[in-house]
Specification:
CATH topology of one domain: Rossmann fold
CATH architecture of one domain: 3-Layer(aba) Sandwich
Shape: globular
Strand content: 25-35%
Helix content: 25-40%
Strand order of the largest sheet: 6-9-10-3-11-12
Structural class: alpha/beta
Number of strands: 12
Length: about 260
């Protein structure tokens, strides 16, 4: 069993390596079978689109990876070592971060304050330590620059566009050196220009060797940015294909059941 803090992703001589393995993962809530016997091998430096209709089990599967739910059956392995997650804080110790659809940002705080919320940098020792705002503003600005985002560390979140808010949420995952970022509908209810900005941010994560699992109903976004697409229907995986080997029409058929998955 892997201890907290171990099991970080790695690049092996420049090629993608398997980072996260799910074996026969199931989750039921009483008589309701939300996820049924899912097996997946996911690689570092890859964007995996996770698609399916409402109630297909996508969010439940991602919440198990994030430590919100424990699987009823099955195992998860990180870099080949089995992990058991009881809480999201444990998932973060393993480098697993989730960006929820509502982003969970504080509108009355600056971008930098949101990035470091609950993980504030301090100067001094013990009870005499004080918040190091200068260091937090500087590091947040560095992360936004790395992401090639126009978001500014000192701006209030309530004044930001949807794309800038996503940049703040993504930057928050990067201060903990995340190796897996789970994103739930990041392009929902934002403008076309902001969608392009968010997809750019996702590519930046991938280029840093991070595994991104992208839940989305937006077919163009998945085909624009994903390397693979996994389709779920009624709690089961019905397809797992490289994006270049499928089409929006096929994925739509798999989601609706018009095409039977294998």
């Amino acid at each position: 069993m892997t201890r907290l803090g171990e099991g970080r992703a790695s690049w092996e001589f420049g090629r993608l390596v398997v980072l996260l393995e799910l074996s026969n993962i199931s989750k039921h809530f009483g008589a309701i079978q939300a996820v049924n016997d899912i097996s997946l091998s996911l690689e570092a430096g890859q964007v995996v689109g996770l698609m399916g209709d409402n109630g297909a089990g996508k969010s439940t599967l991602v919440k198990m990876i994030a430590g919100n739910f424990r699987p009823s059956e099955g195992t998860m392995r990180l870099n080949g070592s089995e992990i058991v997650l009881h809480r999201p804080v444990e998932a973060r110790h393993f480098g697993i971060e989730i960006v929820h659809q509502d982003l969970a940002l504080c509108d009355n705080l600056t971008a930098a304050a949101n990035v470091f919320l609950g993980r504030e940098l301090r100067r001094g020792i013990g009870p005499l330590g004080v918040l190091d705002y200068k260091a937090m503003y500087r590091r947040a600005a560095e992360i936004f620059k790395e992401l090639r985002s126009e978001t500014r560390a000192r701006d209030l979140v309530k004044q930001m566009s949807g794309g800038q808010r996503q940049a703040v949420a993504i930057a928050r995952t990067m201060i903990s050196e995340a190796k897996i970022v789970l994103m739930d509908e990041p392009t929902a209810a934002i403008s076309v220009r902001q969608v392009a900005e968010v997809l750019h941010l996702i590519r930046q994560l991938r280029d840093r060797g991070i595994l991104v699992v992208l839940i989305s109903h937006r077919m163009p976004d998945v085909f624009d940015v994903a390397d693979r697409v996994v389709v779920m229907r009624r709690g089961r995986k019905v397809a797992d294909k490289p994006i270049i080997e499928t089409s929006p029409e096929e994925v739509t058929g798999l989601i609706t059941g018009a095409i039977e998955g294998g």
